[in-house]
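Structure catalogue
Derive tokens from sequence
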Amino acid sequence: MKLTKRSFWLSGIAALTTLACGVSGNATAQDTYPIRPITLVVPFPAGGVTDVVARELAQRLGSALGQPVVVDNRAGAGGNIGTQVVARAAPDGYTLGVLTVSALSIGPHLSRKLPFDPSRDFTPITNLVNTPGAVIAGPATPFNTFSEFVKYAKANPGKVTYASVGPGSIPHLTAEILAKAVKVDMVHVPYKGAAPAMQDLIASHVDLSFETSLATTMTYHANKRIKVLAITGPSRVSVLPDVPTVAESGYPAFGVQGWFGLLGPRGLPPAIVEKLNKAAVQAFADPALRNRMEQLGMQPDTGSPQQFRQFLAQQDKAWAESVKGLSITLD
């Protein structure tokens, strides 16, 4: 078919119109976001601290964005199932996740078979909270301070036992990193959950536990059923102001804590990221929410997407270095 100048010109106009409509439609979708409910995936069961943070965030995001934000608990495989759901979601802002250090910062250094790539498959929006842990001891242990524990453990190598919620968990890694830092030898006793581990600690079947949920720790500490020897994070926590950190106790380089952050799948449009970041940061600026998080032993720590991206890179490097030489793998 012979293409005249007029038909060529008309074809060009049609193509440009189609392109403009596509760009305009995409821009409009981002400008009007959200127009339907948002799913907020939590990779752990309902009732845990991650779930508590997510539900507080969901309520406030919903109010700020004008659409319901529905929490979807997708537990299993140490958080990997729910994390994978977010990684495979469409990058339209309607599936987000409150994801954690376990899957994104620790997992890649313990397993070569993750169903997602933490550095490639997600869009960082903001960190939400940091979760410092604690070294806690049973009531019958012959030590009452962190320094006394170290002295006892060095004098009795291989005698001190500690509970964790399983191999490769943050409590397990924290204990092994600590043992390496203070040069003591302890025996790992893995459990299938935090509740049975705590009950055996209280019953003096094990000597120590390395808790990541200070809410549970505070309850039993107030009832004098456990001893809190030290905080594992880099600073003291407001709800246990008299408990020193491991760093303060003579090991200044030590600092281990978790975090929960808000992320979407890879390719989330910048305009949507900005809108979500603004809403989340404003939510955690609320004094009532900050106080609730602090009362649960968590420290609000929001920022820009770029700051969160840098934080994730730092966490990846720090955990890679921490687990090196521990001979712990999940494959």
The radius of gyration is 24 Å. The mean pLDDT is 91. The chain has two domains: 37-130+257-323, 134-231. The CA atoms of residues 39 and 208 lie 38 Å apart.
